[in-house]
Write a structure and sequence with these properties.
Distance between the termini: 33 Å
Helix content: 25-40%
Number of helices: 11
Radius of gyration: 21 Å
Length: 362
């Protein structure tokens, strides 16, 4: 049986790489810059739309390449205006971090991922996915319960920005969807390059936040190679308790993560925050608040307290609102800026920890 020919994707390529593509297809080198304009400024989804390239040139280009933007397969709208988009993807298996075992087989797997558009007055933030499933295995996360189905390419990541209905209205993004961004760092880094480059989307790095459990080698690269914001999934200040819920704690200790973060300056425009999901009776008492204060003392940061969103077969509930407010106030009085994050999209399973890549009709 003959192998199915897969066209290469243009999304994610730099102008220099696109010049090489143009020459490869018999086009003049300057056509690479034209292609970049069509991809990132005009955000076309078909090579046929690149009308300043000759018809013969477009036909040649289309023999081997496609834009790589994928239409969403489903969209659900929450009562609060949050929208959850479902995207079909074909993912490659590979391991970056080595924190959790993968088979490194190089196989590909078809799956679906979700992106969530969160409106807030004049802002529209897109929460994007970087992997189908996740290898980190956090017990309280629906994505982590799926296991790992593959890494998204840079094209698949950028497709989420291009294909949502609000593409031209987005004011920012958070890499907080399905997957661990630093476990697919090369593709995430390429997507960030496109988002922030003058030849790409031209966004300020201040419009981008990456959330991670703290994979140290790639975390250092991210802090060195970008000026984007960072959010660390913390959830418990005590290492042994954190390991109960987050297996990655055994590979990358929270104290080591914080030691690395303290090497960098967060007093200017770049921010670091810590995500702390509140579980009744597990991490929400004064002992935990005081330990969190000690852990973060002297670091310019913010703690975002998140209500836990109930998932099946999990023993904990979210903390009561009064308990969350008392926890927040205790942190603030000790000089650790703390806020309670509003839950968005819970009725369509779009809130933190609820993404599962499922069609609404299944």
């Amino acid at each position: 049986m003959n192998a199915v020919f897969m066209k290469k994707k243009l999304l994610g390529k730099t102008p220099e790489e696109l010049r090489n593509v143009a020459v490869e297809c018999g086009l003049p080198p300057y056509a690479g810059g034209q292609i970049a304009q069509w991809l990132y400024k005009k955000r076309v989804r078909s090579i046929d739309r690149m009308t300043n390239i000759s018809k013969a040139g477009r036909e040649k280009l289309s023999e081997y390449y496609e834009v790589g933007a994928v239409e969403y397969a489903d969209c659900q709208i929450s009562s609060d205006g949050t929208k959850k988009y479902l995207f079909p993807v074909t993912c490659a298996w590979s391991s970056v971090s080595g924190a959790v075992e993968s088979d490194n087989s190089g196989r590909v797997e078809s799956s679906c991922v979700e992106a969530v558009m969160i409106p807030d007055q004049d802002r529209k933030t897109l929460c994007v996915s970087s992997q189908a499933g996740c290898k980190m295995g956090c017990r309280f996360c629906m994505t982590g319960r799926q296991g790992f189905h593959g890494n998204l390419s840079a094209a698949d990541i950028l497709s989420q920005f291009i294909s949502v209905d609000e593409s031209q209205e987005l004011t920012g993004t958070v890499f907080m969807g399905m997957g661990e961004p630093l476990d697919n760092y090369d593709n995430v880094r390429r997507a960030i390059e496109v988002l922030t480059a003058d030849w790409g989307f031209g966004w300020s790095p201040k419009r981008i936040t990456l959330s991670s459990v703290g994979i140290i080698p790639q975390l250092r690269r991210y802090l060195d190679e970008t000026r984007c914001h960072l959010a660390i999934s913390l959830h418990n200040p005590f290492p042994d308790e954190r390991a109960e819920m987050m297996p990655v704690q055994k590979a990358y200790n929270l104290n080591e993560i914080l030691t690395l973060i303290r090497e960098y300056d967060f007093t200017g425009q770049r921010r670091v925050s810590f995500e702390y999901t509140m579980f009744a009776g597990w991490n929400d008492d004064k002992r935990h608040a005081d330990a969190l204060v000690r852990l973060l003392s002297g670091l310019e940061c913010r703690v975002n307290l998140i209500r836990f969103h109930r998932i099946p077969d999990f023993p904990y509930d979210t903390s009561a609102d009064k308990v969350i407010e008392m926890f927040r106030d205790r942190l603030n009085r000790a000089g650790i800026m703390s806020t309670i994050r509003a839950s968005r999209g819970e009725d369509i399973l779009a809130a933190c920890g609820m993404l599962a890549g499922k069609h609404s009709k299944t």
